[in-house]
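Technical note accompanying the year-one report. For the benefit of new consortium partners, we illustrate the data format agreed upon in the data management plan: each record pairs a sequence with a structure-token string. No post-processing was applied to the example shown here.
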Amino acid sequence: MGIIRRQMRSATQELIMPRYDDLPRLGLYLEQVTRYLNQTFDGLAPLCISTGTVSSYVKRGIVGHSHQRQYDRDQLAALIFMAACRRVATFDDLRFLLQVQARNHDLAAAYDYFCARLEEDYQYVFGLRADLPAIGTDDSDEKAALDKLLWMVACHLYWHSYLDQARQNHNS
């Protein structure tokens, strides 16, 4: 194993995503939403999100408008999904995927699947686990597409981690 991969492995933390039941039950204001999202993705700079980005998602109809200026757990789940996937897919594609999910699956179950699959992909891509376990029994086209999307997210995070480490080595 090369120096950069060894350094990355030692610096990589396990990704632990909040499950739907762990998301705040009380509404959050915009600043609280971005703080919560960025704490969720602590150490993963490509996934950090700003208040302007959240507002843009609302204006584009990707995430519903806040209720009395507060965002609920369904909106948080959608925002976490968007923050994770926005670097590897277009907004229109992600909006479409969210619409398909809403028609075919319970939000809590779909969100929890997203979390579990992303965690497993991340650990596998970063070399923190030797195998990639199957999750769930659904064999739908939508699940297969989501699996590939989340694989791309994990690879994107790996790519950024590699570049950061290589730049640090180059500058020292």
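Partners are asked to follow this layout when depositing records. The radius of gyration is 17 Å.
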